[in-house]
Specification:
Oligomer: single chain
Structural class: alpha/beta
Strand content: 5-15%
Number of helices: 21
Length: 621
């Protein structure tokens, strides 16, 4: 019988003990002594968040298909258990076999969002792995980073032995094979393995690159220290999604996860080209799975899990080539099985509303729009490709269909934003509320119209046309939010409007991490050592400690946030070859300043460079 790493006494003291015991339905059970490679897959956040991440489930399936490899999972212990583990000197352990992470060959950490960076150090610290990669011993696991944040890995480069740039289904097997061969032949040494790994496409080993800086603090050079190490690391992309690994038996958690349902990935990439959206750029080109494959996946996953809900995963589900056929199949299949359907990322049009009316309780649901900006000028600036007429028509269809609750998502602080653009957020919302009262006869209304406006503050991300844009101090973001709030109170239908906004100081910190360089690492380490982790959780975020960390490490946060970059400046992430041409991003930056819309990929190829991957939308439209 498997022995738990935590005693019953400890499990009784912590919140949601089931986070730490493993043995969930569909979890993989292997004899650790029967494999050559042990891989600990980590999501550096609480169990419920990590268990909702599709990428880890795919890699878990990929690695465990290998007879020579055992992939197990680990998540960040919640602060209550963190304190006990530190006090009792209990090492962090895997869920499947309850083995200390320090005993694994690899520790793979998924980097989904910047605000988890101190949790990386929490995981390393509790695992008794030295925080700085160059301090690690031969016996320590190789620490790998992957996920969207690796498109600028520099702020956390000191903590990782290597990064995997791109989609995991491509060259991970080469990396594991290299490790196994070197171990079997007796030629393995940490430095030698990392050098050889750096020659595999998509693998970036930070210790093999030297960075220098100009007097003004900007990057002067970024060069490999060996001639055979590539100067550019090429993003890895899966072109055949129908035949790539996918978890037909996803692990079913004991604790209710954030996404507690079957997840059906229908495509990768996006045709839209929104200039603020990193995912829409770094996951290019748009690639789809066939309807036949998706139908088979859906049935198998529902039968293998017992879930009562299925959801589509996509950046823009409405753009799937046969969304109507897929939805019709799911509605019929789920009706027979009494399964709920969740359909995110649908455009609000007559087809989508017809579908939602079949799968939702109209009286209890709300319709979500993401105009991102209130004024047409700003929507053109960000290349949203959405007119006010589109929004009003969608709202009208929703109201006529029985909905009376609308959620609007906007951003404040976008490049070129003026006060009139800010005021347009509540003014547009007021016009939508007025449309409800004009459209729906009094006797047919399901109560009053409820319009919820939510604004986040814009963060410029690498590999987007806005990567050169400036940010603002927290007080300026709050001033802009106040303009929206005050304008809302002036509207005729203000009683139908409500407004929520994001934390401004979190936004600034995220911006520093998103476009930072290697010098940021010492501040991250200082912050963790002075009590910062779970920064993505409001109750644990301490901006004052971060300001203290930057001051103690001699870092000026304004250098990373307050200035617009020159397009000739060497950026910390320029060594990555994403397939996206720099000339394309510069052109889109100029188009944004002129508020000119670029057609989507199905309408016209814009020459972004991703045609070089040889497939997807680039060859189908």
């Amino acid at each position: 019988m498997r022995k738990l790493a935590l005693s019953d006494e400890i499990l009784m003291q912590v919140d949601k003990a089931a986070r730490y015991i493993g043995n969930e339905f569909n979890s993989v059970k292997k004899d650790p002594s029967s494999v050559d490679i042990r891989f600990a897959m980590c999501f550096p956040d609480v169990y419920e968040i990590g268990m909702s991440h599709l990428g880890i489930q795919i890699l878990y399936e990929l690695f465990n298909r290998r007879e020579d490899t055992y992939c197990e999972r680990v998540y960040s212990p919640w602060p209550d258990l963190h304190a006990i583990m530190k006090e009792e000197q209990i090492p962090l352990f895997s869920l499947e076999s309850q083995t200390p992470i320090q005993e694994f060959d690899f520790l793979g950490i998924t980097l989904q969002y910047e605000m988890c960076y101190t949790n990386i150090l929490q995981v390393l610290d509790l695992s008794r792995i030295p925080l700085i990669a160059t301090d690690r011993r031969e016996s320590d696991p190789i620490v790998i980073g992957g996920g969207p944040c690796v498109y600028n890995p520099e702020p956390i480069a000191d903590f990782f032995d290597l990064f995997y740039i791109g989609e995991g289904e491509t060259v991970y097997s080469q990396l594991l094979d290299l490790y196994k061969e070197m171990k079997a032949s007796g030629t393995y040494a940490r430095a030698a393995f990392l050098h050889q790994a750096a020659l595999i496409p998509g693998i970036y080993v930070p210790s093999l690159y030297e960075v220098t800086y100009q007097e003004d603090g900007t990057l002067a050079s970024f060069t490999p220290i060996y001639e055979d190490v590539p100067a550019q690391v090429k993003r890895q992309v899966v072109m055949d999604l129908d035949h790539s690994p996918y978890p037909m038996k996803p692990v079913v958690p004991y604790v209710r996860a954030t996404q507690d349902r079957v997840v059906l990935e229908i495509q990768r990439g996006c045709i839209r080209g929104c200039r603020f959206c990193q995912a829409g750029m770094i996951y290019r080109p748009n690639r789809e799975k066939s309807l036949e494959v998706l139908e088979g996946y859906a049935i198998q996953m529902l039968e293998n899990t017992g879930y009562d809900e299925i959801s589509l995963s996509s950046l823009s589900s409405s753009d799937y080539h046969n969304i109507q056929g897929l939805v019709d199949f799911l509605i019929e299949e789920c009706k027979q099985r009494k399964i709920n359907i969740s359909l995110p990322s649908l455009r609000i049009d007559s087809f989508s509303l017809d579908v939602m009316s079949k799968v939702q309780d109209v009286n209890k649901s709300s319709i979500t729009f993401a105009p991102e900006a209130g004024s047409q000028r700003m929507r053109n600036t960000i290349n949203k490709g959405l007119t006010e007429e589109d929004i009003m028509n969608g709202a009208r269809l929703a109201f006529e269909g029985g909905w009376n609750k609308v959620k609007f998502y906007f951003m404040l602080g976008l490049p070129g934003e003026e006060e009139a653009d800010m005021r347009e957020i509540p003014e547009l919302s007021n016009r939508v509320a007025a449309l409800y009262y004009d459209t729906v006869p009094k006797e047919q209304r399901h109560g009053k119209c409820q319009i919820t406006m939510s604004t986040s503050f814009f963060v410029p991300k690498p590999w987007t046309p806005f990567q050169w844009a400036r940010m603002y101090p927290p007080e300026e973001y709050l001033r802009r939010a106040k303009i929206v709030n005050d304008t809302m109170k002036e509207q005729l239908n203000h009683k139908s409007l409500s407004y929520q906004w994001h934390q401004a100081d979190v936004t600034v910190l995220e911006g520093i991490f998103a476009r930072g360089d290697r010098r940021i690492a010492k501040a991250i380490q200082y912050a963790y050592e002075h009590g910062c982790f779970f920064d993505a959780w409001g109750e644990y975020f301490h901006y004052d400690k971060w300001l203290e960390a930057f001051a103690a490490c001699g870092i000026d946060p304004d250098f990373y946030t307050m200035r617009e970059r020159d397009i000739e400046e060497l950026l910390p992430w320029d060594f990555i070859d994403t397939g996206i041409r720099r000339e394309f991003l510069v052109h889109e930056w100029e188009q944004a300043k002129a508020a000119v819309v670029t057609p989507n990929c199905k309408m016209r190829c814009s020459g972004c460079g991703c045609k070089s991957f040889g497939g997807g939308i680039c060859y189908e439209s």
